[in-house]
Design a protein that fits this description.
AttH-like fold; twelve-stranded antiparallel β-sheet; 351 residues; 22 strands; mainly beta; DUF7064 domain-containing protein; DUF7064; eight-stranded antiparallel barrel
Length: 351
């Protein structure tokens, strides 16, 4: 599978139904940006989700710190609204009702994000500049592919960015200088109906070690690792990943196999706290990474699922270290099983 790219114009795709058109109410357009400040154990989740059938939007700014964030309201700063008007769009600038601004100063290449809370508790001003092409991604959540086709072509993209700027949190200034992914979706039908998608927890682990090694995958834990989901889902013989790639300098390769092995789970929110990732690319070359969460949180992006973000410290097989987001999502069957303690194989970290 070759990795394609998207035109820069897709950054500004926010279509809405025409007169007398009726769209699936689960149709969404999304924007995600993030950053981390490892020395302060801080992660940021900046998100906009538009629902054009209504039209409504949701999103905002979530700043989390350390690993003891069990509830959404535990995090360092939360301004996330589930119901907002359609965002304001002026030229290349998109602004939400709660004040998050995404300004594509150069679509496909650079964006400036700004925000300031009304009470002075948090503000940010960052520039995200591309260090990879704008890669095409068909879908990110399992089940979306069942709704592809029809009059409105769905799509997605993702790109690694060099993120610099400033975060002000509770009166303290933090410099931002990291490498972080951004992604988006458009015209995807992401069904929220109960039981619509039967899948184990799905984890996204982008990593940037330098221009010579950039890795990205989204997968569930394969059965041969003894995952905590074993016995809850029947995944058949399908691959554990549904999207993955690696960039080595100017060369981009697809990934044909991913084996993600979780060593420890968070005792309260069940997010993987330590894990290993092994990947094999299209040419048969292998890559191995070990990671540990230094900050994590439950976040409110998906009310029908348990969604978590984290700052992971990753190490490659040569001992190089990087930090990036690790995100995971699962549904209530898994959450209840973990809470009941029926999963005997689960390995819990000491937090």
């Amino acid at each position: 599978m070759s990795i394609q790219t998207r035109p820069s114009s897709t950054d500004l795709l926010l279509p809405r139904p025409g007169v007398n058109e009726q769209w699936d109410p689960h149709t969404i357009h999304t924007y995600y940006f993030g950053f981390s400040i490892p020395e302060a154990r801080i992660g940021a989740f900046l998100y906009l989700r538009c629902q054009p059938a209504f039209p409504l939007s949701q999103g905002g700014v979530c700043i989390f710190r350390d690993t003891d964030n069990v509830e959404h309201t535990d995090i360092a700063f939360l301004d996330y609204e589930i119901t907002m008007p359609w965002p304001s769009v002026e030229a290349n600038r998109i602004t939400t009702d709660n004040g998050l601004t995404i300004d594509f100063v150069e679509p496909g290449r650079a964006a400036r994000l700004t925000y300031s809370s009304g009470d002075g508790a948090a503000a940010l001003d960052i520039i995200a500049e591309a260090v990879t092409p704008l890669f095409a991604r068909g879908h990110v959540m399992p089940g979306e592919e069942d709704h592809h086709g029809g009059d409105r072509t769905p799509g997605g993209s993702e790109q690694f960015m060099h993120v610099t700027g400033e975060l002000w949190l509770d009166g303290e200034r933090h410099a931002v200088d990291c490498y972080a992914p951004r992604d988006r979706s458009w015209n995807q039908v992401r069904v929220e109906r109960r039981g619509a998608v039967e899948v184990p927890p799905v984890g996204w682990s982008p990593m940037y070690f330098g221009n010579d090694l950039i890795f990205n995958q989204i997968s569930f834990e394969p059965g041969d690792t003894g995952p905590a989901w074993m016995g809850l889902y029947d995944v058949g013989d399908r691959p554990s990943h549904h999207f993955a790639w690696i960039q080595l300098g100017d060369e981009v390769r697809s990934i044909r196999r991913v084996r993600r092995n979780v060593l420890e789970y968070h005792p309260d929110i069940y997010l993987p706290m330590r894990q290993e990732v092994e990947a094999e690319d299209e040419r048969g070359e292998f890559y191995r990474f070990r990671g540990e969460a230094i900050a994590c949180a439950s976040l409110p992006a998906w009310p029908n699922a348990s969604f978590h973000d984290s700052v992971y410290r990753w190490e490659d097989s040569q001992g190089r270290v990087t930090h990036a987001t690790y995100q995971e999502i699962w549904f209530d069957k898994y959450q209840k099983a973990m809470k009941r303690g029926r999963v005997a194989t689960a390995r819990f970290a000491q937090i």
